[in-house]
Fold each of these.
Amino acid sequence: MIRSKLKTLLLAFSGTILAISLIMYPQESFEASIRGLNMWWKVVFPSLLPFFIISEMLIGFGVVKFIGVLLEPFMRPLFKVPGVGGFVWAMGMASGFPAGAKFTARMRQEGHLTRIEAERLVTFTNSSNPLFIFGAVAVGFFHNTHLGILLAASHYLGNICVGIIMRFYGKESPEDMREYRKKHKIREALAVLHQTRIKDNRPIGKLLGDAVNSSIQTLLMVGGFIILFSVVNKLLFHLHITETLAKLIETLLSSLSFPEMLSIPFISGLFEITLGSELTSRVEDASLLHQAAITSFILGFSGFSVQAQVASILAQTDIRFQPFFIGRILQGFFASIFTFVLWNPIYVRLSQKEVPSNSIPVFGDGIWAKDFYHQMIEIGPIITIFSLLLYVLVLFFRLISDKKS
């Protein structure tokens, strides 16, 4: 009872301080809000929307169940999750945060995962997408293509390690073990594909409308969290809370032989990965190896902004948030360790490799990532506007249909 009252007082006090801070720093809050809105408007929304819509349609068509049957012999012994986890893992890796949580929650709602399996799956299926790591972080912030290969390798290897460790979380039921021992064949997978599509029984038009509606609702929620935490991060800086926390982090960094100047970027990255990665790249007195290790931790931890998005999605199910939070901490440490381990075999070797002057480097030496990222920023708002108009039309016609019925 006392603990509950203390929590109520803490939440009320925090909300009051936040409201007062917004009044005290209106210009700074507005600029931070615009910054978060630009990130969502230009990059996050247009890059995630196609993946969300296509995934919803694949679920309705039964393709996810088809993939799940085929991947069962791989996903079950390695991660102790059903084969559908392979689809969630791939889509989460390709589209980035918080796609893994959304698809895991959907699989749980559909009954394809038990609660324990869903909690295992969500810990390692949320990751930064390659476009963000290469285009925004490596090329955009550090202006170093080779660093993107190191960051991506460390990030995804850390992701796999988290999945392997979390396989020991929870206990398997006898029904799950019997399901794993079944032999899965192509014929059985095709039969499941057909049965799932028949069971769904929605016309393609309604299926597409539901996919657009669900995807845009999720992305609107994501946008709200991005803007909120962008403002909170800025206010914490102006209230000198970030500086106070940074002094505590300086002791830890010094014990690990890291430059103390990385403390503020580290604290900022704990709240928002984009700002933290950008500030880390600006620390000139730190070595590139130390900058890469801090950035890897920030990408692995994913920031409280992303974690709040995931918590909001998981709250719609019975999936607990604690395993996901533990997975973020583990991935942050694993990614940093892999950065040190792979520094010489990957980054140093690639940097020392000389490209003949008469040869054309593959992918334009990584310029493709930068060009694609900037093209997304240019056409992103157009995609966002068109999608929001489509969302309004879908809601309008549904309201008319509901009134007629």
Amino acid sequence: MKSFLKSLMMALSAFVLAVSLIQYPDQSLEASIRGLNLWLEIVFPSLLPFFITAELLIAFGVVKFLGILFEPLMRPLFNVPGAGSFVWAMGMASGYPSGAKLTARLRQENHLTRIEAERLASFTNASNPLFIIGAVSVGFFHDPELGMLLAVSHYLGNFLVGICMRFYGRKTNLRKSQPAETFSITKAFKALHDTRLEDQRPLGKILGDAVLSSLQTLLMIGGFIIIFSVINKLMFLIGITPLISKGINLLLSMIHIPESLSVPFLAGLFEITLGAQMMAQTENVELLKQVILVSFILAFNGFSVQAQVASILAETDIRFLPYFFARIIHGIFAGFLTVLLFEPLYVNRVKTNLHELPVNGLPDAGSFWFNVLKFCSHYGPMITIITITVGVFILMSRTARHPKA
């Protein structure tokens, strides 16, 4: 009966989506283009170099090297192998869903047990600095000083999630608990060399595989961004969003959050960018309350990113539920840290820089993150198109050399 109801709900949801697309074609197209532009200008060019670099680092044995080097740190802190340090660093630098992609890759190569992979995925899927500081702080709130508060709350909250999740699955872990290994550079270099020798692929093949693997993941990410952008818009048009926001408003009122932020918060639960933008555009609301909810939705990742992660993890035996549970914990940590750090990391910094609260001016044209965001907006589409073209040529070349029988 439960399976039948699930099938019925899935079919009904798909039917409602199809009818809504027919009923609101113009708005659906507009939302689709918005999602496409976000992927084309920001997501693809910002994630591509990290994805390709990560594939190369894995192939050349650098991950094995870091795994042995950082084992004495990662095992006591997070109860994961040292290779998790690579995933953690790349996840923070490049943003979601790279943490999930790299965790799945390490699991496929048996660097992690399933429990260790689930622990690692729970705290390595973070937002990147470009999005937090460039897009949200500078682009939406027009306030570069806000970036420090959001970034520290986000990454410190992620660290605390990792500490909490180290206790997850201790009774069912397939790998016996081992004491942290001693620091050994010699052993780390030997592991790097052995890994490189084991990979028999020529350099050209390694580079081609890195590009194709990255393209495949980024195309999947683009599809999720576009479809969730459309779903978010359609939910608002057919009246689902206002209905759900009434229930959310009851929860927000318990922590004295105004009703006007319930719709932006709900939008952020589905798609982070839209929610953060709507939050910043809400007028006559205390800035701290806006930032608390933005911190939560950044940590929660949004259902759009969660769907991307679920799709990546589905290629392995890593379960999605621990990751989802960790997102809720991260959201609570990030919101709480925002309250604690608002005065020292924002109010005091603004006073020091002779700004007024709240800041409603234009972004600082000399800001580093503003310039990075501007570069991506101008050259992102060109980078995306060129890379896809290169990927197509690699596929055509390989198909020509090895035609199917």
Amino acid sequence: MSISTSAKSLVPSDPAKVMVIRDITPNITTLSVPFFRFGHIKVGGRGTLVKLQTGNVAVFSPVAFTSDVQAKLKSLGPVKYIVAPDIEHHIFVSMWAKEYPDAEVIGMEGLPEKREGDPATRGTKFAHVFSAKNKLDLKISPEFDAEFSYEYFHSHVNKELVFLHKPSRTMIEADLIFNLPATEQFSRTGLDARAGILTKIFGGIMNTRGDATWHKRFLWYGAGSKDRTGFAESAKRIKAWDYDRVIPCHGDVIETGGKATVDKITSWFTESKH
């Protein structure tokens, strides 16, 4: 079990040298790495570890399983949940599932089939699979559900699973919003996270500054365009959540003011304005 050949070109050759492991709270640790979309655009990648009150650990959007990550996990506790938060963020799921064979893998409709089509990723069993039909009824477990709320954006082009860690008032998400530039994720590479024409263009769209009009347009005309009604229903549900911090997979962590930021970027859906 490994990562697919096509994915190898997207991840750093020696992730241990460039990964930033940071404790966001006593129970939340981020694993930030450089990541290039389409081989050129600096968007960064991030895995998130959350230690539950039971002592078990949930990992969201797992990144490379390095010796430093392994050491960190020994100090936190056993991994019980491995979450692929969308149809694209699953590159290292097999690696983590092999290390923690008793962990429950969580994903969404279409992902198990996608992985079974690749010899490098097939064979991983998914314990929980969200779909448009079961999304309002599916439960993970008492210990997980005691600390997390979750919403499945089945109408997003990447089929997004978004989580709220209620004790820390932290949203954890993959591609719902970006917060570029990815300064922390490229901080150990010696590369400028803003450099490059394609990075500048994409970063000009996928940021949270000002009124974030281009980000709103990206969701309205792109990621959420095929089913705006369904997207709006999901956006309205997470608007009711109580949180302050946002941990995105792409770009820097929004330490405070995250709810206002997400509400702003999704406002064309929640307020029926554009």
